[in-house]
Every structure is written in structure tokens, then in C-alpha cells.
Amino acid sequence: MNFPNPKEMNNFEVELAEKILPPTVFWRILDEIPPALTWSLMAVSIITPMFIWWLVANSGWVEPLFLPTPEQVWASLWDMAMSEHLFQDILASLWRVSGGFLLAAIISVPLGILMGAMRSIRALFEPIIAIIRYMPATAFTPLLILYFGIGELPKILLIFIGTLFFNTLMIMDAVKFIPKELVETTYTLGGNRIQVILQVICPYVLPNIIDACRVNIAAAWNLVIVSELVAATEGLGHRIIIAQKFLKTEEIFVCLILIGLIGFTIDQIFRFCLRCTCPWVE
Q1: Rounded to two decimals, what is the model's pTM?
Q2: Is the Cβ–Cβ distance between 221 and 46 less than 8 Å?
Q3: CB neighbourhood size of 150 (10 A)
Q4: Whole-angstrom Cα distance, residue 120 to residue 251?
Q5: Which residue stretches of the chain are H helix?
Q6: Distances from the Cα of 34 to the Cα of 28, 40, 71, 178, angstroms
Q7: Tens-place pLDDT, residues 169-183
Q8: DSSP string, 262-282
Q9: What is the pLDDT of residues 109-164, one digit of tens each?
């Protein structure tokens, strides 16, 4: 009986694999794609909606009151930047988001780690958090204004309430999936509970903590705009409501684009922190 040699077998396996999974670059699953293709696709994702916007706005199909052209928005951005109010609004919104989200992170990170690591802490906090997280944070606005007035504190607390519980649960879930062998090995080597938490669990879930913050800071921006729409004298949300009153649609577009760009910048900062602190993730 004749058996195929190893070289023939390898060729056969390659041909079989190509028939089952034809070679592709675009449709790869979990594999890297060429950097040139990555940058090209990123450019397309920005240029395509901008071109559609420019085309529709200049076609005359929509009144400029409802859809200003990119040129009008750019001119409005320049005028707003010259007035100095724009930078004050950006700083006011950044301060509220930073304050509320940082306060939530200070509590949610250790609480999420403890809830994920210890079933007793999870049983103590998870039921009440599971109930409160389904309450829309914006529904707390009347109470916050009633308790704390219309100053900065209720705006920061609104962001705090809206991000605290989701951050906590996402970090808790990350800790729950730590391989138990790591913990048992640490105990075998003489480690205690504090060492397990600080030297095993915290480094293991650090990428998940950064990712949770990346996701939830977007919610913080949603909430700061809502809080500024209700009661504020400065901020991007306040600028949007002023522009609405005077039918300055182009200024609304400017504020929305700025919010998107600021969010994108913050997201890149989190990605940079992830690469610096957790290089093994890449």
C-alpha cells in the first residue's frame, strides 16, 4: 500500500484550506490587516459622511435652517472661537465630566474588584446596584436640583450617578473571569488575600478597567449635555440651547462636532494609557 509523503500531505492540506476558506484580506477574523488598508478604511469612514453632508446641504433639497453647509459650520466655528465664549463652554463641560467621572471611578474601581473577588461583598451590593442601574440617571435631575440647587454640584452628581453603577458591574464581571488557578498558585506560594488582590487580580483586570472607563465616559458626556440643557450659564449644552432659541443651526452643529472630537481625543488618551500600562494586551 502506497502512502503519500509529508510534502504531498502539506500541499493537500493547503489546497483543502484554500477551498474551505479562500484567502482574503478584508474579511479576516481576529487577524491583523495591512496598515495601509487600516488607514484607508479610517479615511473612508470620515470622508464618506462628510461628502454626503456636503452633497445634501448644497443640493437645495433641505433648507439651510435645518441643514447648514460645512462651509457655514466652519465659518460659525471661527466666529465662536473669536468670541472666547466657546473655550469657556468647553472648559466648563470638561470640568463637569472630569469631576463626576473621576469621583465615580474612585468608588467603582475598588468596589468592582471587591465584588468580583469576594462573593460576600457581591451579595451585599449587587442587588441594590442591579435595581438602581435601571433607573435613568436623568430622572434624578429634579431631585438633585431640589436638594442641591442649580450650581455645579448637581451636574457633577448627575454624571456620578450615571456612570458609577455601570463601571462597577463591568469591573466586577472582569474579575469574576480570572482563572482560579492564579489565585490558588498565589496561596500555594505563601501569598495572603491582600497580595492576591493587589498583585494578581489588579494587574490582571487593569486592561478591563481601562476599557470600562473608555466605554462609560461616553455616557458621562451624554449626561453633562443633559444637565447643561436644564440649568447652566455656560457649557456646550448651554450653548446648544441658546443656539436653538435663536435658530442658529450651524452653532448646534459646531457644538456637536466639538463634543465628538473631544470624546475621540479622550478615547485616544485611554488607548495610549492602555498601551503604556498593559503592552501585553496588543
Answers
A1: 0.81
A2: no
A3: 14
A4: 52
A5: 6-20, 35-59, 70-82, 85-117, 119-132, 141-148, 152-176, 180-188, 193-195, 202-230, 236-245, 249-277
A6: 11, 10, 34, 33
A7: 999 999 988 988 888
A8: HHHHHHHHHHHHHHHH-GGG-
A9: 999 999 999 999 999 999 999 899 899 988 998 899 899 888 889 999 999 999 99
